[in-house]
Amino acid sequence: MSVAIPKRIVEELEKSGVDVGSLIVDLLVKFLNLDPHVAAESHLELALKYLEEGKRLIDEDPLRPARSSTRQRRRPSRRSRCTST
Q1: 3 within 8 A of 20, measured Cβ to Cβ
Q2: For the segment 24-39, what is each residue's pLDDT rounded down to a tens digit?
Q3: Is the Cβ–Cβ distance between 78 and 65 less than 8 Å?
Q4: b/e string for 31-54 if b means 16 or more Cβ within 10 A?
Q5: What is the pTM of this model?
Q6: DSSP letter string over 43-81?
Q7: Residue 35, CA distances (Å) to 7, 21, 47, 84 in order
Q8: Cα 66 to Cα 72: distance, rounded to the nearest angstrom
Q9: What's the pLDDT tens digit per position in 44-78?
Q10: What's the rounded Cα separation, in Å, for the pair 15 and 31?
């Protein structure tokens, strides 16, 4: 099952440093008054999902994270690209 969350809300949550998946799990556990073990199992399930996704991304292109961070560091700022004539 997947749930659509408006982009604006996701952006605000990310700005605040909130993990959307964990927040939803916590809210649903509280709303449904579920056992804390259900919350723990749900968070573990999400963590394993993210771990597997990370492994898959590394297997696809192990240098991808290094390349993108290197590009960001090497990319000159707008000011340094402008030259006066």
Answers
A1: no
A2: 999 999 999 999 999 9
A3: no
A4: eeeeeeeebeebbeeeeeeeeeee
A5: 0.58
A6: HHHHHHHHHHHHHHHHHH-TTHHHHHHHHHHHSPPHHHH
A7: 31, 18, 19, 66
A8: 10
A9: 999 999 999 999 998 888 776 666 555 555 555 44
A10: 25
